[in-house]
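## retry 2 of 3
previous attempt timed out at serialization; input unchanged, resubmitting
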Amino acid sequence: MWRKPVTVHYRRFTWDTNPPRKSFEELVRQAAEHQPQGSPAKLKERYRLRMLRRDEDSLFINALAVEKDYLFGDITHFTKDQTQALFDDSKEDAPMADVQQLPKPENGELIHSLMYWMVKNDHVFLLQSQSLRTEAAEEYFSWLLADKTGVLPKGVKVVFASKFDAQAVGGDLEDIREVIVGGTVTRQAGPESLPTETVVEESGGLSQTLLAGWLKARKVLVALIDNEADVEKIMQKLPEDGSLSVEVHIGYKTKKRKMSRAILKDLEVGLRNLPDSQLQVRGKDGRQAPDGTVRLQHPASVLFVTHGEGEAKRPTSLLQPEDVLRSMLEAYNVFVSNGKITDGVQRGQQT
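## retry succeeded, writing output
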């Protein structure tokens, strides 16, 4: 059985003021039952009704399961009429491989990426892909609930806040003394070689992460030194293969006060889309959690979809949706059993 190690990320639906009277699960259920004017079907019955069309690409929920105790689905990303280039590897002695564009199949579209989600009460579980992260889920559900169905007022933005894991520092959340945000700046990546936008869909999640980290770190340097030219001089003096580490420490410099839960919750929201590698916390005993363990997440192993029979059976790059769901239900049960989240959510109270 072929499996892929994955990380199920925990998020919670949150808000700034005037919390909705319904849980996020109830809001999504209501949207699924919505029947657009002039349509013979509800959203849950037609995938095309769930399609967010942007300038050049689109997002939509393809697989949607509306169950008694939860909702589960995916978010699929594609660009209409996108094609794929292939090279011919049959000529081993050729000095160069032939490259050709693969024609788009009739009635088919090339999928860039897809991510999975599960919603239970206000708890949201995400299995992110390289190019589809939490931000994409927030954008899609904001459109679905506010613009498409009117379940939420126009202009309301859905926010999926992360949650710091107290176990990462060996104590209670209030034992967190500092939140450390860090990034690296390399000499080779000068401002003239980088695009102005922070999203690099074509290069995948790794390039997105590196670019976001570079930009954040450089902005910190510019803010501290207050001179772009001086920052550039510093960068040019780095070794050819060197990088400059930049960290921001957020916390109290007093022995009498703890970082309040309100501040921590604001940081959980504000830093929610920062890569795990750029976020750490330090506890009261000086313990500093390693990268990637600060926020609540669950390691899992998910089965691949396979094709062929017998000895010819091989794994594809797709994950089995039913096994993704199993891993998310597993994460929910583990978090509840360990007291990291509550089984239910009271309206107007974030947990």
